[in-house]
Amino acid sequence: MGQKSREDLVKRLLIALAAFVALGILSWNTINDQRIRLATLAVLAMFALKTWVRRKDVLHPDKE
After folding, report:
1. Gap between the Cα atoms of 32 and 47, Å rounded
2. Distance (Å, rounded) from C-alpha 42 to C-alpha 4?
3. What is the largest CA-CA distance in the chain?
4. What is the Cα–Cα distance from 36 to 28, expressed in whole angstroms?
5. What residue spans of the chain are helical by DSSP H?
6. What is the mean pLDDT of the chain?
7. Of 16, 22, 56, 62, which sees the most CB atoms within 10 A?
8. Chain-centre distance of CA 47, in angstroms?
9. How far apart are CA 24 and CA 18, in angstroms?
């Protein structure tokens, strides 16, 4: 197997971000306690931010 194409990597990024949005919507609709709901959304937001920030390293591995 060769290197993954840039298009595949972008597609994976979009799928990951869509999954974070879906998890956020599901947690908002299923968790009743406001504090736990907001804590869950904060954790999901941190993971989404980490994914977004890390995209440059994945899309451009040769640049520093």
Report:
1. 22
2. 31
3. 47
4. 10
5. 6-30, 34-59
6. 86
7. 16
8. 6
9. 10
Give the C-alpha separation, 32 to 22, whole Å.
17
Residue 61 DSSP one-character state? T
Cβ proximity of 63 and 32 under 8 Å: no
Query: Among all chains, which residue has been given the structure tokens 């990024």?
Result: 13
pTM: 0.77
1-33 pLDDT per residue, tens: 346 677 888 888 899 999 999 999 999 999 999
Q: What is the CA radius of gyration of the chain?
A: 15
